[in-house]
Amino acid sequence: MATRDDGTPWWTAFPEPKSDVNTIEPAQVLELLESQHNGKPKPCEFLLIDTRRTDCTGGTVTSSLNMPAHSFYPTRKSLYDLCKQAGIKRIIFYCGSSNGRGPRCAAWMQDYIDQVGGDIQSQVMTGGIRGWVKAYGGQMMDGYDEETWQAESA
């Protein structure tokens, strides 16, 4: 766990999230990705956010943006504005296992959406990138590195 200089967890520098966030299963994310990559191009209505930082190795789910959790909170408004402009309907967050950083960032995002009265939904992918790799290997991943995942499962 990353800490601040005074030894406290990094997230204590920001308000505690209030929102309960909806989850989305990796299979549903795979369906969304496949619908984007099959057939006639259409506007993308979702955005994947990988909240890992120094452990962001082995690849990411295809089309994910890396927005490390420790610096996410101040960028919520900008992300919201960009998503609103682009017609994004849902923002899907994940981290290593989606037990900490991903859900925290998704909740902060949902707090902001609720605050401004927006119609975008913030979700967290269950199982995180580890769950994705366990279910799908390198399928629909950018920068997939099999050796990284073999070493992790050893």
From TrEMBL:
This is Rhodanese-like domain-containing protein. One of its GO terms (cellular component) is cytoplasm. The lineage of its organism: Eukaryota, Fungi, Dikarya, Ascomycota, Pezizomycotina. InterPro entries: Rhodanese-like_dom (IPR001763), Rhodanese-like_dom_sf (IPR036873). One of its GO terms (molecular function) is protein tyrosine phosphatase activity. It holds the Pfam family Rhodanese. Signal peptide: none annotated. Residues 42-141 form the Rhodanese domain. SUPFAM superfamilies: Rhodanese/Cell cycle control phosphatase.
